[in-house]
Amino acid sequence: MKKSLIKVICMKERLIILLFIALNQTYAQGIFDDKLPTSRQDTLRGSITAERAWWDLIYYHLDIKVEPDKKYISGYNTVGYKVLESNKVMQIDLQKPMNITSITSKNKELKYTREGNAYFIELIKKQKKGDINYIKINYEGFPKEAIRAPWDGGLSWKKDQNDNHFIATSCQGLGASVWWPNKDHMYDEVDSMLISVNIPKHLTNVSNGRLRKITELKDDTRTFEWFVSNPINNYGVNINIGDYVNFSEVYKGEKGDLDIDNYVLSYNIEKAKEQFKQVPMMIEAFEHWFGPYPFYEDSFKMVEVPYLGMEHQSSITYGNKYENGYLGRDLSGSGWGLKFDYIIIHEGGHEWFANNITYKDVADMWVHEGFTCYSENLYVDYFFGKEASSEYVIGTRSGISNKKPIIGQYDVNREGSGDMYSKGANLLHTIRQLTNNDELWRQTLRGLNEEFYHATVTTKEIEEYISKSIGMDLSRVFDQYLRDYRIPMLEYEIDNGELSYRWNNVIDDFDMPVDVKIDGKNRILYPSTEFKKMKIKNLFIKIDKDYYVYSRDLKLVIDN
Q: Are residues 316 and 435 in the same domain?
């Protein structure tokens, strides 16, 4: 091919690339600013309304009867609260087709009105700041049945292979109010909770916290009472009902003895005893990276359920068929994903990121899922080494779509892109490279769990803590990966021994450094959105694969 023809082709290709980039930037800005239409119900569900803001949740006693044959729940929830500011109207949430039948305070009936899934309760008198008061909410109904738990959640009413009832709840995003009345917003966690569940006596209920007692009743039922002594988010509360058997062990952890209890279907106990050997391994790895397990007082449980699994606090639910990987598959394609049981490791990781550190608004759901997806990588790092963990997390990039931002829309209960999992993990893996100090990075992760112990947080709080901990302003890095959908493109051109390079496909003022290999030596480049230049001997550079960035040689050299 003649050189003049090569030159024309190169120019055309470069024009196409530049046009693509321009359109991409315009489209990205549109997505960056996009807000979808919302309804009054979205606001009532997703915002800290005036009827929520004036009171602080301190206690629940959820006392219910579950009738499996009817798929019916009835009972009450006693709500204890502290008055922060004087007010008289309280919002409680319960989703249709469930219904509140009466509300009382000090044995007096309270008036209430319903607007969709929100109930507005008129208290007897204006509440006095600093007081601690209680109301009792009686309710009943046929709760929404889960269609595809845990993603489209509700109640899973199933049968095991022995035709015993096998029932479980899952309600992240959808909201705990799908099956019980509560203050259904993530910003306010209840300080402690008693869960009483009455069921047919041949079945067992497992919920959060520790089992206090089992009461046998004359009507062929029995009631299980579980007490949660630590703050718990509303979707983390669960009931699990089945023909369970139990086996347990004590783990010697950072804070002493940790009780581990496992509840599985009777015919799966031998498989469970083998597969659940990974549970103490998970705790060992995550205590190393994240600090002590956050709920020693409430123990740790694995509970078999009829769906894949969920991070219910201190009672992780499990349905991964006692196989390694994700239902036997390696989501990373690296081979390392088959070295561990995805549900044990991923859902276990949520005890630190979701249950200990909890988002205030579901728009910041990446704080749960990005960090926990990254915890899989750290588990691999702990047991199989840094190179293996790098291969694992890089392998998960194949599932990233990069079509919309990770951060969702605030105050309307709307999460962001599903990229929050693998893209969030690769963002954190990239930041680890920026620290260039693995011990500093470990202390940063442990520091997060100490600074925000049993707390609800915003993304901004997490961003600012990490930036301060590693001594680097990461605000534009977080904006790029969380609030824009594009992946940074390192563009470069080598001509007459000179390297020209810049960031493209990025937000304004993006300034992340990147490790490269130039002339056989490791170097750190500090690109900006304007071209920078440096002398170079070789005709190529190699970008560190651990950075989640793309690269492009603008010269488009064509070998003849």
A: yes
d(CA 310, CA 317): 5
CA–CA distances in Å: residue 458 to residues 186, 351, 353, 366, 484:
11, 18, 13, 10, 18
337 plus 427 within the same structural domain: yes
Question: Residue 3: which residues within 8 A CB-CB, separation 6 or more?
Answer: none
pTM as predicted = 0.93
Could you tell me if 347 and 308 are in contact, meaning their C-beta atoms sit under 8 angstroms apart?
no
Contact between 501 and 490 (Cβ < 8 Å):
yes
- The dihedral through the CA atoms of 451, 453, 457, 459 has a sign that is positive
Closest Cα partner for 505 from 548, 469, 453? 548
Residue 39, domain member (yes or no)? no
Query: 3-state SS of 383-429?
Result: HHCHHHHHHHHHHHHHHCCCCCCCCCECCCCECCCHHHCHHHHHHHH
Q: How far is the C-alpha of 324 from the C-alpha of 307, rounded, in Å? A: 16
276 in Cβ contact with 303 (< 8 Å)? no
pLDDT in tens, 160-185: 999 999 999 999 999 999 999 999 99
Cα–Cα distance measured from residue 203 to residue 69, given in angstroms and rounded to the nearest whole number = 13
| Domains of the chain: total | 3
Of 178, 177, 208, nearest to 193 (Cα)? 208
Residue 481, domain member (yes or no): yes
pLDDT tens-digit readout, 86-104? 999 999 999 999 999 999 9
CATH of the domain at 289: 1.10.390.10
- Per-residue pLDDT band for 35 (boundaries 50, 70, 90) equals confident
Cis peptide before 306 (omega within 30 of 0): no
